[in-house]
Amino acid sequence: MYKILIVEDDQTIAQTVAMHLEKWNYKTKTTEDLKNVLQEFLAFEPELVILDIMLPFFNGFYWCQKIREVSKVPIVFLSSANDNMNIVMAMNMGADEFIEKPFDLTVLTAKVQALLRRTYSFGGTTNAIEYKGALLNLNDAVLTYQEQRVELTKNEFRILQILLENAGKIVSRDTIMERLWENDSFVDDNTLTVNVTRLRKKLESIGMTDVIRTKKGIGYLVEL
Description:
Layout: E1 3-7, H1 11-23, E2 27-30, H2 37-44, E3 48-51, H3 60-68, E4 75-79, H4 84-93, E5 97-100, H5 105-120, E6 128-131, E7 134-137, E8 142-145, E9 148-151, H6 154-165, E10 170-172, H7 173-182, H8 189-205, E11 212-215, E12 219-222
Parallel strand pairs: 1-2, 1-3, 3-4, 4-5
Antiparallel strand pairs: 6-7, 7-8, 8-9, 10-12, 11-12
């Protein structure tokens, strides 16, 4: 489940957008303290931000710049200040999309889905893998699930990545060991067993039980 932060001072618009996106199985949060948007961003750790330009205290350009200093998360501007100068300014500040008010919720949802797909998809230059509400960050080997984070060792990370990339398929022990060897992780059969056991315990510690199934004499499976 992707998390979306909505930075909007009009509560009617904010709640309407939030309720609509939640129907599409996104987890949303509307900013409560518009003086401290960056702190709320860091605490919520969203995968996408929807941001208005005209805000009290500091405008959307300011907060876009602040977010860009710490994150590459997709940012969508949603604003009635839709003259060419503001659109160009938004893009120059690091925005990924600009949607004019008034807007159609269906169009907004489609653009949000497209941005998330491009940013977190399995193909191409993906930097994250999503699995049943969990997000494996390929940049820092951190797994996030239900607002809990767990850091993985190099081998644990590679094993989980291989299994998630092949979700629904049995991956043989030999295949996993070959992939680990390609990345200078020299493991034997016993070492692989130890790493899988530790990985399972870390998954269970954040509520992800029975994720990795053993297929005796063959390998491991993560079910779709």
